[in-house]
Amino acid sequence: MAGGDQNELTSWSPSRRDAGQLTVIGLAAGAFSALFGVGGGTVMVPLLVLWRGFNEKKATGTSLLAIVIIAGYAVISYGLFGSVDVVKGLLIGIPAVGGVLFGTWIQQRLTDRLLSGMFAVLMLFIVVLYLVK
Amino acid sequence: MEAVEIIIVGFLAGTVSGLFGVGGGVVFVPSLVFIFGLTQAEANATSLLAIVPVAIVGSYRQSKYGNVAVREGIWIGVISLPATVLAAFVANELPQRVLQLMFVAFALYVALRMARRALRPEPDAEAEAELGAT
Q: What Rg do the C-alpha atoms of chain A give, in angstroms?
């Protein structure tokens, strides 16, 4: 379980299957992150749930940790191509930090099924937004 | 960009991030394109920068709730590097409309998978123990 992970970090030796799945998830998340400007969580969360048997909350928490590293790589890569708008990124990112505190707090009070359903609705809304434009 | 709109979009994206374990890019990117008029590539890059502080705070909070598998998260993150660099290059070369359609296809796929999971939950011992009877 998640609670003991810090202590096991040093002695962790994943099986070939574990390592393979985590590597595929990482590569897929990295590609999606940079292609679409997202953190890769939309790939990682479903794959952690479906392949690794994580529940939604553990999948989302783990995804956020990986996103720190992935988005860091991606923003540096985009920086090399010159398309990062630093001022806008920080302006929109700072209020978002308030939002993430609110979101993680709310999340602890919702069921996993409800979270999956809400996530599906959000993604459908985005699809419609792009298609009607 | 209007200050009020920035704050609303930012807060909303952060909430989505906390709720769903994403970086908030699914909100940042469409907002930057449709509300603030950035191109898809500019929106991607700007979104990624905004995601970094959000994910730092979000993963820290989630670790306090015991929801972070640290070694898996670090493995996934570190190993993503080659795919990330390659995709950033590709995204800057592809036409804007192609990128948008790819994003739509991807969002649709995730929506369907998660809807299926919400409607027909897998026999998941961990989730059931947590929820009680479902």
A: 16
Which residues, other chains included, contact B15 with Cβ-Cβ below 8 Å and sequence gap of 6+? Answer: A99, A100, A102, A103, A106
Contact between chains at B111 and A116 (C-beta distance less than 8 A):
no
Instruction: Please state, in angstroms and rounded to a whole number, the distance separating the CA atoms of residues A34 and A71.
Output: 8
pLDDT at A115: 86
- Among the partner-chain residues B47, B52, B70, the one whose CB lies closest to the CB of A65 is B70
User: Domain-by-domain residue ranges, chain B?
Assistant: 3-123
Q: How far is B134 from chain A (nearest CA, A)?
A: 9
Whether residue B76 and residue A44 make contact (CB cut-off 8 A), yes or no, is yes
Q: ipTM score here?
A: 0.80
Torsion of Cα atoms, B1 then B2 then B3 then B4, to 10°:
-130
What tens digit of pLDDT does each residue of B88-112 get?
Answer: 888 778 887 887 788 788 788 878 8
Task: Name chain A contacts of B124, Cβ cutoff 8 Å.
Answer: 53, 55
> CB A40 to CB B124 under 8 A?
no
DSSP structure string for B69-134: -HHHHHHHHHHTHHHHHHHHHHHHHS-HHHHHHHHHHHHHHHHHHHHHHHHS----HHHHHHHS--
Q: Is A21 on the interface with B (CB under 8 A)?
A: no
